[in-house]
Automatic annotation (TrEMBL):
Domain DDH: 27-166
Species of the source: Puniceicoccus vermicola
Domain DHHA1: 242-328
Pfam families: DHH (PF01368), DHHA1 (PF02272)
Single annotated GO MF: nucleic acid binding
Coiled coil: none
Superkingdom of source: Bacteria
Name of the protein: Bifunctional oligoribonuclease/PAP phosphatase NrnA
Amino acid sequence: MTELPLSPLLKRENFQKLVDSWKGKKLAVCGHLRPDGDCIGSQVAFCRFLLAKGIEAAAIKTDPIPRNLESFVGDTPYIDVKDFDPAGWEMVAVDCADEIRVGKALREKLPTTLFNVDHHISNPGYAEHNLIMAHSCATAEILSELFLSLGHHPDEVTANALYVGIATDTGQFRFPSTSTRTFEICCNLCEFGANPAKVATFLYEQETMGRMQLLQSFLSTLKLSLDGKVCTGCILDGEYERTGTSNEDSEGFVDYARAIEGVRVGVFLEENKGKIKGSLRCKDPIFRVDTIAKQFDGGGHACAAGFRVESTIEEFYPKLVRILEDHLQNSQVAG
């Protein structure tokens, strides 16, 4: 294994001392609503790390584990939030940009957070101990660096989970946050059993016909605005029911909008009973889509962010375009 020294920030956090202080505690490893690969991968990896250190731990889920990620959980203990008895447990949050993102049901059971590890630039640091590294490509990358640098040897399930988190949050190593260190860490994970071919097969080559029909519907809605600088695609109310799919099947759709030549910002809008979930993606961090999301009480990364509003797409879309127009003009002036 290639030696990876801790980055200066991680040294300052004195992670080993923190882990030692958790001995005798019961730690609930929590992720965000509608979990993605980085969320599940980080939950699995951190939970297994804690168990290996003799600390009682379990991962807590509010929403179901996405179908294409189930194979990477292994024998990691997962407890559904509705079955979770919080007595004696403390929360560890992974990949959660703010404390609300764990979900209302879990937040009511565990109102405070002991440790918060994340890579979202908008994370305010809401826990007793916080490790926020906005330059990292994924929370799984932060955890990988911690584990490997401290001499922890992850088992095969943990190595694959960490690799899944990194691979998905970098868009298969295509996004600007991908660095030489990202590849160094992944190389180390492969030495511990991470299997890139297996990961790619389960993530991207197990599609259902329903998801293909949903994608077809989404692509038919793509619309360019602001002289081709913005592309927006939608999932209209009722489309999941029509295609026999769920919201996990639209994961990654926003990247089709972002990928069009000349587009600065790609937008995904999902309509559901008077509410909209929005996702924003850009190719260049100069466009800081997290600041757009913040105007709707959302957040995220410079190149990837999200928000929720109560509205319909018909009502909301013109407002969003006006905000995007001002934002792009200001971004270009600043750049």
